Amino acid sequence: MTLRKRTQVMGWGVALAVGGGWGVCCWAGDAVAGRWGVPCVGESTCPVLLGPLNIGSAWLVLAFVVGAQALTLGQGGWYGVTTLATAASLYAVAYQLDPLLASVRRFPEGGIVWGLVAVGAGVLMGAAGAAWQRQLPGWDIAAVALLACALVGEARIAVTLYPADTTAMGPGWRTLVIGSELMGGLLLPWLLLRTWRARWLGALPTLGLTSFFLG
After folding, report:
1. Residues 23, 116 share a domain
2. Distance, CA of 193 to CA of 199 (rounded, Å)
3. Which of the residues 19, 65, 184, 204 has the least number of beta carbons within 10 Å of its own beta carbon?
């Protein structure tokens, strides 16, 4: 087996393993919190809480990171979609097999919707990760800017969905989620890109989006 082929096989294995582990961890976060009787994110009468891993931006970062090990953009897209589709599938299965959680939120309807989202997001973010890692001129800047804008965008959505007086999310958890997504989005271009010019180009869309939201 050639080195290239061995690398591809290892990449698929990593995507499956990471996706499976992620899905189980997300289920475990819900299951543990549910047995503590903590209110659920988005549903004030729900006895479960989405775990720290189970927010959209965390899934996007996961696909980006796994896709970054790919040798080509197409391969990165496949790694990303494999990771998120595996995670969504195992999460849905574990959720449905858990008596407490299954009584709150039913699948397969929700599982089908999130599965489709996982496919689209996995392809896009996996390819973005590969573009960044391969340092493709221009594409690496766009890839990092895309991920950064996604984090800032979800922070803004969270502000709208969960206002300060919400009973669906504790104030400490709300601050942690929104703050970490906003700061992550603002810092990513400066941490991931390799030249000052690239950092500024990658940061400008995120800064503009943040200014728009704050305004």
Report:
1. yes
2. 5
3. 204
The C-alpha angle with vertex 157 and arms to 193 and 174, in degrees rounded to 5, equals 90
pTM for the full predicted model: 0.84
| 121/197 same-domain check | no
Spatial separation of the C-alpha atoms in residues 23 and 20, rounded to whole Å: 5
Q: Which domain holds residue 172?
A: 137-215
Residues 39 and 130 placed together within one structural domain of the fold: yes
Task: Give the rounded percent of residues in the chain with a pLDDT score beyond 90.
Answer: 42
| Rounded distance between C-alpha atoms, residue 171 and residue 165, angstroms | 8
CA distance 2 to 125: 27
pLDDT at residue 137 greater than cutoff 70: yes
Domain end (from 109, 134, 159): 134
Please count the structural domains in the chain: 2
In whole angstroms, give the CA distance from residue 131 to residue 71. 9
Q: What share of the chain is helix, strand, coil (3-state, %, to 5)?
A: 75, 0, 25
How high is the mean pLDDT of the chain?
Answer: 81
Same-domain pairing of 113 and 159: no
* Rama region for 98: left / alpha / beta (φ>0; ψ in -120 to 50; rest): beta
